[in-house]
Amino acid sequence: MAREIDFNEYQELVKGDKMVLIDFFATWCGPCKMLAPVIEQIANEHSEMEVVKVDVDKVAELAVLYNVASIPTLVFIKDGKCVNEHVGFATKAEIEAMIEECK
């Protein structure tokens, strides 16, 4: 299950061995609501990576760190570095392809 994180949790996650997928979202964002069940499926099917959510209204410093100007934005982090990102809604197949690119 994808869980919401704050800045401190983020700092710990990126130090780890697992790839991290961050879903930048807002509760008022229509496309973010459409993407939420897809993110949950990805989280449930990919135990080899951490799938987390960041509410841009609550954790703005992380949105600034990754220059998130539009939501939803997906950021893939491996070895502490951004290795891929996607802005806007994405299908499950598109996200799966991005995960494969990052491995």
What does this entry look like structurally?
The chain is an alpha/beta fold. It has a single domain (3-102), classed as Glutaredoxin (3-Layer(aba) Sandwich). 39% of the residues lie in helices and 28% in strands. It contains 4 helices and 5 strands; from the N terminus they run βαβαβαββα. It has helices spanning 7-13, 30-45, 60-65, 92-102, and strands at residues 3-4, 19-25, 49-55, 73-78, 81-87. Strands 1-3-2-4-5 form a 5-stranded mixed beta sheet. α2 (30-45) links the parallel β2 and β3. The longest helix is centred in the middle third of the chain and has 16 residues, at 30-45.
Brief rundown of the structure:
The protein is an alpha/beta fold and 103 residues long. It has helices at 7-13, 30-45, 60-65, 92-102, and strands spanning 3-4, 19-25, 49-55, 73-78, 81-87. It has one domain (3-102): Glutaredoxin, CATH 3.40.30.
Descriptive key words:
globular, single chain, 28% strand, Glutaredoxin, five-stranded mixed beta sheet, alpha/beta
Q: Strand content of the residues, in percent?
A: 25-35%
Strand arrangement, largest sheet? 1-3-2-4-5
The largest pleated sheet is described as: 5 strands, mixed
Mean pLDDT: 95
Compute the number of strand runs: 5
Total separate domains: 1
CATH class: Alpha Beta
Q: Regarding quaternary structure, how should these chains be classified? A: single chain
CATH superfamily: Glutaredoxin
Question: What's the order of the H and E elements?
Answer: EHEHEHEEH
Could you name the CATH topology? Glutaredoxin
> Radius of gyration from the CA trace?
12 Å
Point out poorly predicted stretches.
Answer: none
Tell me, what's the shape? globular
SS element count, helices: 4
- SS-based structural class? alpha/beta
Residue share in helix? 25-40%
The assigned CATH architecture is 3-Layer(aba) Sandwich
- Give the N-to-C terminal Cα separation: 21 Å
